[in-house]
């Protein structure tokens, strides 16, 4: 009987570290974030019943499109237990990175989310400007934001083109600011503007004051940008920053020109974009390539600065096309359609 008890005791003692390790796996969290292939979205398609890239207005002249111009994302998992982290790492599909690289300790999660949302909104504006610039729409002094509350709230809107101030035409930002800097708080300005999908208008605005300047405060952010008389909306919630810019621009170009940029092929890609159409590098290129391959892509547009990393994880059956500008990306797709050789990574 004593031998049986000893064996049970020995078994229990042996089980203690196993149980303890199991508890560690399931309870203890690790200071790592997992990165892996995320969902892809066809910028020519719909999400939740809305066009991902929606162009509305009687002057838009939108052409039918088909096929795929997919933007790609990186999935991100936080708050991992030791067991989850080990399982993800062993899957070979996920990358573990120190949490501080993704969530800097000197910023709250809300601050990081707000910065990402701001980056995403800026990328949408830049994607619109890059596409309209490529399509040769004329430049205008364009309202990018309206301070609310502020002198212009309810009188000027985002997207308005300012053509004149107090009867003086303004062709660019320098001319506009030169007039504004001669004003004083309390003065009235008469602004001639064009509004998308609406007739031209005139707004009389009483200037406010701002402690960082002596001249009058109009309460708008403006920039020189190509202007079109119709609305372009991007109906995707923040997907983690500005890396969808290139694919958004391509979708706008495809919808506002005849023919299909993809020529029936499943095109995917990534890249930031400036309002001038310059394509910039992004993070997580290998994860995005894997997501694109699994979605069915045969061509992947790669920012030039990401080419070395992209080659290290080349996916069978998927061509890597090197792009530095929106114009290069459009030309490369036309070259592929014609059976030629585009620039490759």
Automatic annotation (TrEMBL):
<dbReference type="GO" id="GO:0004252">
    <property type="term" value="F:serine-type endopeptidase activity"/>
</dbReference>
<dbReference type="Pfam" id="PF13180">
    <property type="entry name" value="PDZ_2"/>
</dbReference>
<dbReference type="GO" id="GO:0005524">
    <property type="term" value="F:ATP binding"/>
</dbReference>
<protein>
    <recommendedName>
        <fullName>endopeptidase La</fullName>
        <ecNumber>3.4.21.53</ecNumber>
    </recommendedName>
</protein>
<dbReference type="GO" id="GO:0006508">
    <property type="term" value="P:proteolysis"/>
</dbReference>
<keyword id="KW-0378">Hydrolase</keyword>
<dbReference type="GO" id="GO:0030163">
    <property type="term" value="P:protein catabolic process"/>
</dbReference>
<feature type="domain" description="Lon proteolytic">
    <location>
        <begin position="238"/>
        <end position="336"/>
    </location>
</feature>
<dbReference type="InterPro" id="IPR001478">
    <property type="entry name" value="PDZ"/>
</dbReference>
<keyword id="KW-0645">Protease</keyword>
<keyword id="KW-0812">Transmembrane</keyword>
<dbReference type="InterPro" id="IPR020568">
    <property type="entry name" value="Ribosomal_Su5_D2-typ_SF"/>
</dbReference>
<dbReference type="GO" id="GO:0004176">
    <property type="term" value="F:ATP-dependent peptidase activity"/>
</dbReference>
<feature type="active site">
    <location>
        <position position="288"/>
    </location>
</feature>
<feature type="transmembrane region" description="Helical">
    <location>
        <begin position="12"/>
        <end position="33"/>
    </location>
</feature>
<keyword id="KW-0720">Serine protease</keyword>
<feature type="region of interest" description="Disordered">
    <location>
        <begin position="102"/>
        <end position="121"/>
    </location>
</feature>
<dbReference type="InterPro" id="IPR036034">
    <property type="entry name" value="PDZ_sf"/>
</dbReference>
<feature type="active site">
    <location>
        <position position="243"/>
    </location>
</feature>
<feature type="domain" description="PDZ">
    <location>
        <begin position="141"/>
        <end position="197"/>
    </location>
</feature>
<dbReference type="InterPro" id="IPR027065">
    <property type="entry name" value="Lon_Prtase"/>
</dbReference>
<keyword id="KW-0472">Membrane</keyword>
<dbReference type="InterPro" id="IPR008269">
    <property type="entry name" value="Lon_proteolytic"/>
</dbReference>
<comment type="similarity">
    <text>Belongs to the peptidase S16 family.</text>
</comment>
<dbReference type="InterPro" id="IPR014721">
    <property type="entry name" value="Ribsml_uS5_D2-typ_fold_subgr"/>
</dbReference>
<keyword id="KW-1133">Transmembrane helix</keyword>
<dbReference type="Pfam" id="PF05362">
    <property type="entry name" value="Lon_C"/>
</dbReference>
């Amino acid at each position: 009987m004593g031998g049986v008890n000893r064996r049970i005791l020995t078994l229990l003692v042996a089980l203690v570290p196993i149980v303890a390790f199991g508890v560690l796996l399931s309870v203890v969290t690790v200071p790592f974030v997992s990165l892996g292939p995320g969902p892809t979205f066809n910028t020519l398609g719909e999400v939740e019943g809305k066009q991902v890239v929606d162009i509305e207005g009687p002057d838009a002249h939108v052409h039918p499109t088909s096929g795929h111009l997919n933007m790609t994302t990186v999935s991100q998992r936080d708050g991992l237990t030791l067991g989850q982290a080990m399982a993800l790492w062993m899957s070979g599909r996920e990358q573990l990175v120190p949490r501080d690289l993704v969530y800097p300790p000197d910023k709250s999660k809300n601050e990081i989310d707000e910065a990402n949302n701001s980056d995403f909104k800026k990328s949408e504006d830049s994607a619109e400007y890059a596409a309209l610039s490529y399509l040769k729409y004329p430049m205008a002094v364009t309202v990018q934001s309206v301070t609310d509350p502020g002198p212009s709230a309810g009188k000027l809107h985002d997207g308005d083109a300012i053509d004149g101030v107090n009867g003086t035409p303004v062709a660019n930002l320098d001319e506009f600011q030169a007039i504004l800097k001669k004003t004083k708080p309390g003065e009235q300005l008469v602004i001639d503007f064009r509004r998308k999908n609406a007739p031209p208008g005139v707004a009389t605005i009483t200037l406010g004051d701002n402690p960082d300047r002596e001249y009058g405060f109009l309460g708008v952010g403006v920039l020189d940008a190509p202007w079109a008389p119709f609305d372009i909306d991007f109906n995707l919630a923040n997907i983690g920053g500005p890396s969808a810019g290139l694919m958004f621009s391509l979708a706008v170009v495809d919808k506002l020109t005849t023919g299909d940029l993809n020529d029936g092929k499943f095109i995917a890609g990534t890249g930031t974009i400036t309002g001038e159409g310059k394509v910039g590098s992004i993070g997580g290129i290998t994860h995005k390539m894997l997501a694109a391959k699994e979605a069915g892509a045969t061509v992947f547009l790669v920012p030039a600065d990401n080419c070395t990393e992209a080659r290290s994880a080349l996916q069978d059956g998927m061509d890597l096309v090197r792009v530095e500008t929106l114009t290069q990306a459009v030309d490369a797709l036309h070259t592929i359609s014609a059976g030629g050789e585009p620039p490759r990574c």
